Amino acid sequence: MNEEILNQDIVNEIAALKQEKDAVILAHYYVRPEVQAIADYIGDSFYLSKVAANLDAKTIVFAGVFFMGESAKVLNPGKTVLLPDMKADCAMAHMADVATIQKMRETYDDLAVVCYINSTAELKQHSDVCVTSSNAVKIVKALPNKNIFFIPDRNLARYVAAQVPEKNFVFNEGYCPIHEQILMNELHEVKAAHPQALVLAHPECKKELLDEADYIGSTSGIIDYATNSDAKEFIICTENGIRYELEQKNPDKQFYFTKTEPVCPDMKTVTLEKVRDVLKYGTNDVQVTDKLREESQKPLARMLELGK
Ligand code: 13P
Ligand code: SF4
Predict the structure, then answer these.
(1) Domains in the chain and their CATH numbers?
(2) Mean pLDDT, the chain, as a whole number?
(3) Strand order from edge to edge, sheet including 80-82
(4) Residue 59 C-alpha to ligand 2 middle, in angstroms?
């Protein structure tokens, strides 16, 4: 049986299982194109958390990495949240620690601990508010506190700090390995090959790359910018799964990546087969203890409120 027919069989199976189990599928822009194609909702982290907070369906299948499924469960304790691959994790989500948060709280008065959503529920539990790349500037500006300890991502933190100079930022040394590894010489190569192209970058990229960007934003921000722009060529500095939606929305435009395309292996472990299997067998049911849920729900709810 060829792969296309096989995929169509799995797609049909998933459609039937979704009805049977009263399920919806949420997918991040970094997962494989064939998984984005069968999703009910695709988006950036902020959009997906808003969707997750307001769903009627009994079951949510989250095609993404663990912190995404965990946040969806925290926002929907009464629903079943299934993760196609429990081992799909975000390396950056673990790059901060509770002892340092406590130390910062003792060191600085009037401190807000601002936690990027790409983090474990344990880190959220000890934070005052969550943010995503699309609402971080707005939310930090809205906080009454003078001092901001921003975890885990140092690159997003520096990008936000530059736009909120009235606050004092304390940085944490976390980073996304996928965005940090985008090579400047490869960016210069692709710019030289396509001098007309605009550079659109995710704020998880390092500062020297962001300094060369024409636009900086979340995955949705990048897609909207390219879609609304009169330009025809773009160099995209983020994970290559975003290409699917960029091309769907802009068949007349050209999108280039650096030669070593940024790929998040964890996002790519989510396959159609795994989506089908969790729906079929009810496996990989995300569980969060009551205490962790109650305490990590607060900064997420505050993000949804302040991000409105
Ligand atoms: P956004 O889609 O919110 O921009 O997040 C990027 C990311 O790294 C998710 O893991
Ligand atoms: Fe985490 Fe980076 Fe992968 Fe996003 S791309 S899930 S930040 S490791």
Answers:
(1) 3-88+267-289 (3.40.50.10800), 92-176+292-306 (3.40.50.10800), 182-256 (3.40.50.10800)
(2) 97
(3) 41-43, 23-28, 59-63, 80-82
(4) 25
